[in-house]
């Protein structure tokens, strides 16, 4: 009858859409399993880049400061002239130095009697660090040179109506079209992983379990990666981490695990969380050994070290994945590496991961938002574009301390990834620096002004 | 908190782009969004925390002495360091670091206290006092036992200190 027709049509339409979506998800899963790509995501990235270039033209003409910003990798606000660091006072760009300060030398090596002008370096570095300091800017999202049409990176300013139009369309595309689809894909990935791991865990043969897991986990991660529209470029794949090795990488977000996990199975070393993250950790643990610890335990470094040593010396176990910074940094720099992973005696495989900040801000500020909010923000960004460099394996040299080994690897990772190598502890995100640093500077200053005998001082102040 | 645009008379040394950057930076340091920077907020910058003279610098910024630095004080303070700021302003700032009670003179006690901040307990008080006395004797031309601003400029002015105290925002 006539009344049923519209209802029937409606049901029929819903069924059709459901079948289509199901088909697309199935195709995506198969593509992930066989690691095949139609290149749609790469095309999407190219279109976006073209769009961003158009956006840049519309902005105000670059001032002199911006043009030098674009040249420097590190996106500085000001040029630093004096820096207080863990190694002493650094004087840079000594075009402003007077005759008694040699360029680029730490002032602590120069001995001269106290002069009223000695406060200048402290004042200068103090003022400069108020405007821009090396450390806290690593705990916030990187500033972009040009707007990438996401209001979360740059507060919205009206530049032109064309750009506003693009932005509105972009919002619609990201929230209404891309996000629901990505959400479904992510759910598919989770289901695939959970069901797959449950099945595998039931099988009685460990060899078979391991083999099946080596298919299941990377393909699940690949599916996850597609859920973020990830375009990943892997370099120097011949250096990929081997069994019983220790893979170390710089840490920006939980997505690092997905990025690296696309290619091989890892035993992840990480803090055990609750909630969704904890659920994923339990799922992964069903099919492969991982090392999860409580944050309170991590201060007891010997526990982690023992677990690592056990893992590395048991043959046939997948490589360990460890993030020595201990916390997420904003992908412009590499901060202090904890020595834990470098003491266990295995072969270390360094990996550098660099995300392209134009497409998404991948830094996870765990004090600002939880995991689910973070994943939502990732899924409503344009895409995740990352470069992964596998560096040649390293072993601890004769007579090299673990700390020196860690720093050496850190320098390599920073160099390869184009990141700034910093000595600061990533934990400064949460806690204050040790007061001993201030004492260090005071002692250095004291040495400078009081290393001399009384007669030297009289001559010095006479001439000054 | 007023935006940069509501302080036209202050920005003699900063153009609008620089003001915008400084405003952004101010907001980043102002964690509780109160519109003024407390000492705690300043001290959350690790580089600043290890600076022996941090208290003096913040004290000079805080012109109304209410314990916090609002945006106006922030800009005025930074302005003295600007490339376009004059040598006089920079020398004044350096002078004020020493002149803790703002009476226009650096007394023996004030120089002692500031030097103690820079050296900590790595020198005995007696040794520190020796250095202070020597410095004052050398600088004090009119024999009043204190260093006036003019005497300070005589000693420090020739060293191009103002070039060392410049930031290019």
Automatic annotation (TrEMBL), chain A:
SUPFAM superfamilies: Glycerol-3-phosphate (1)-acyltransferase. CDD domains: LPLAT_LPCAT1-like. The keyword Lipid biosynthesis applies. Residues 245-356 form the Phospholipid/glycerol acyltransferase domain. It comes from the Eukaryota. InterPro entries: LPCAT1-like, Plipid/glycerol_acylTrfase. Keywords: Acyltransferase, Lipid biosynthesis, Lipid metabolism, Membrane, Phospholipid biosynthesis, Phospholipid metabolism, Transferase, Transmembrane, Transmembrane helix. GO terms for molecular function: glycerol-3-phosphate O-acyltransferase activity. The chain crosses the membrane at residues 12-36, 163-181, 187-205, 372-391. It is found in: Membrane. Pathway: Lipid metabolism; Phospholipid metabolism. GO terms for biological process: phospholipid biosynthetic process; triglyceride biosynthetic process. GO terms for cellular component: endoplasmic reticulum; membrane. PANTHER family: GLYCEROL-3-PHOSPHATE ACYLTRANSFERASE 4, ISOFORM D-RELATED (PTHR23063:SF2), PHOSPHOLIPID ACYLTRANSFERASE (PTHR23063). Belongs to the 1-acyl-sn-glycerol-3-phosphate acyltransferase family. This is PlsC domain-containing protein. It comes from Macrostomum lignano. The lineage of its organism: Eukaryota, Metazoa, Spiralia, Lophotrochozoa, Platyhelminthes.
UniProtKB/TrEMBL annotation, chain B:
It comes from Macrostomum lignano. It comes from the Eukaryota. Keywords: Calcium, Metal-binding, Repeat. The lineage of its organism: Eukaryota, Metazoa, Spiralia, Lophotrochozoa, Platyhelminthes. The keyword Transmembrane does not apply. This is Calcineurin subunit B type 1. Pfam families: EF-hand_7. PANTHER family: PROTEIN PHOSPATASE 3 REGULATORY SUBUNIT B ALPHA ISOFORM TYPE 1. InterPro entries: EF-hand-dom_pair (IPR011992), EF_Hand_1_Ca_BS (IPR018247), EF_hand_dom (IPR002048). Gene3D superfamilies: EF-hand. The keyword Calcium applies. SUPFAM superfamilies: EF-hand. One of its GO terms (molecular function) is calcium ion binding. Belongs to the calcineurin regulatory subunit family.
